[in-house]
Specification:
single chain, mainly alpha, 76% helix, transmembrane helix, transmembrane
C-alpha cells in the first residue's frame, strides 16, 4: 500500500515538473528578458548566453525528473513481473493440486476389501471394513495388555481383573463362583500367583490360550485392557499401535500402501504451494471418516515419516476425526499428544 502511494506521488510530481513547471519557467524567462520587461538590445547581443542559461537551469531538472520516471517505470515493471510470476505459480499450483485431488479420488475408488462372503466392496465401504478390521486387531491387543497386566502385576490388579481370574479359579478349586471383591478372595488369588514359577503360563491355564479364549472371557479382558490402554503414556500407546499396525499392514498393505503414499505426496504439494491453508481445507473435505481413522492409525505407526506427521498436524487434517471410529475414544488433546510423540519417536527419520 505504501509503495503504491509513493509511486502515485512521484508520478504526480513528474507530471507537474515536466508539463507545468518547466514550460512556465521558459515562458517567464522569455517575457522577463524582453520588452517591456527587459532590454531588447542586450538580449539581441547575448541571446546565446541566455539560451545557455535557460538550458543550464532547466536541463538538470528535466534530466532528474526523467531519471525518476525511468526508475519508477523499472520499479513498476519489476512489480508487474512479480505479480505475473505469482499468478503463474498459483495457476501451476492449482493445476497440480487439483490433479492430485482427482488422483486421490481415483485411488479411493480403487481400494477394495473382500468380505466374508467373498464379495469385494469398494471405496467408502472398503475403508469402513478396513477400519473395522484394524479395530478388531487393536481390541485383541487390549486383551493381550490385560493378560500381561494380570501375569506381571498380579499383586495390584483392578477389581475387574481379579474378577476375570476368580471365576476359572473358583471352578477349578470348587469355590463360590461369584466374586465379591473381598480381601480373602483377593488374598487367595495373590497366594496362587505368588506361588507360581511362571505367572504367564498360570494365566493361560486359567483363561485359555489367546487364540481360543472363550468369547465372554475375551470380552472382559478387552474391557480391562482398554482401561489400561487409556491410562498409558503416549509412548506406550504408540508402541501398542505400532505392533498392531505391523500385523495389519502385513495383511492389507498391498491394498492400502499406494493410498497412503499418495496422501503424503498431496500434502507435500500443499505445503509447497502459495495457498497451503486453502488447499488443505479442500483436501480435508475429500476425506471420509474412515479414511481419517486409517490415516490416524498409519500416522502413529513406524511406517509414517516425521515429515508426514508434521504435515498432518500443521494442516489440521484430523479436524474431522470421529473418536468413535477408533477402537478407543481419544480426546483432541490425546490425538495431538500422540502425534507429537510420534514426531519425537526414533523409529524412523
Amino acid at each position: 500500500m505504501n509503495i503504491n502511494r509513493n509511486t502515485d506521488w512521484f508520478s504526480i510530481l513528474g507530471f507537474l515538473v515536466i508539463f507545468i513547471l518547466v514550460p512556465s519557467v521558459c515562458i517567464l524567462a522569455v517575457f522577463a528578458l524582453t520588452e517591456p520587461f527587459g532590454p531588447r538590445d542586450w538580449i539581441k547581443h547575448n541571446a546565446g548566453q541566455i539560451g545557455d542559461t535557460i538550458g543550464g537551469i532547466t536541463g538538470p531538472i528535466i534530466n532528474f525528473v526523467a531519471g525518476v520516471l525511468v526508475y519508477l517505470s523499472f520499479k513498476a515493471q519489476i512489480k508487474a513481473n512479480k505479480e505475473q510470476a505469482t499468478q503463474f505459480k498459483r495457476e501451476t499450483d492449482d493445476n497440480t493440486f487439483f490433479n492430485m485431488i482427482a488422483l486421490h479420488n481415483k485411488k479411493v475408488d480403487s481400494v477394495t476389501f473382500q468380505i466374508a462372503s467373498g464379495k469385494k466392496v469398494e471405496s467408502f465401504s472398503a475403508f469402513k471394513n478396513y477400519t473395522t478390521e484394524y479395530n478388531k486387531l487393536l481390541k485383541e491387543e487390549f486383551s493381550m495388555i490385560a493378560r500381561r497386566e494380570i501375569s506381571h502385576n498380579w499383586a495390584n490388579l483392578s477389581y475387574q481383573a481379579y474378577d476375570i481370574i476368580w471365576q476359572p479359579y473358583a471352578l477349578l478349586y470348587h469355590k463360590p463362583v461369584h466374586f465379591t471383591g473381598s480381601q480373602s478372595q483377593v488374598d487367595e488369588l495373590k497366594a496362587l500367583y505368588g506361588s507360581s514359577d511362571d505367572t504367564w503360563e498360570l494365566t493361560k491355564g486359567l483363561l485359555g490360550n489367546p487364540i481360543d479364549t472363550p468369547p465372554e472371557v475375551n470380552s472382559s479382558l478387552q474391557k480391562v485392557g482398554y482401561l489400561l490402554f487409556e491410562k498409558m503414556s503416549s509412548t506406550q500407546r504408540l508402541k501398542a499401535i505400532q505392533e498392531v499396525h505391523s500385523k495389519f499392514y502385513h495383511d492389507h498393505g498391498h491394498h492400502l500402501g499406494h493410498y497412503f503414499r499418495n496422501i503424503h505426496y498431496t500434502l507435500e504439494i500443499i505445503d509447497g504451494s502459495e495457498q497451503p491453508q486453502k488447499y488443505a481445507k479442500i483436501f480435508r473435505a475429500q476425506l471420509s471418516r474412515y479414511e481419517l481413522a486409517l490415516m490416524y492409525y498409519n500416522a502413529l505407526s513406524s511406517m509414517s515419516s516425521k515429515e508426514h506427521v508434521q504435515f498432518l498436524i500443521i494442516y489440521d487434517i484430523f479436524n474431522g476425526l470421529y473418536p468413535s471410529d477408533l477402537a478407543y475414544y481419544p480426546s483432541q488433546e490425546v490425538v495431538k499428544e500422540d502425534l507429537l510423540c510420534r514426531i519425537k519417536s526414533p523409529e524412523r527419520p
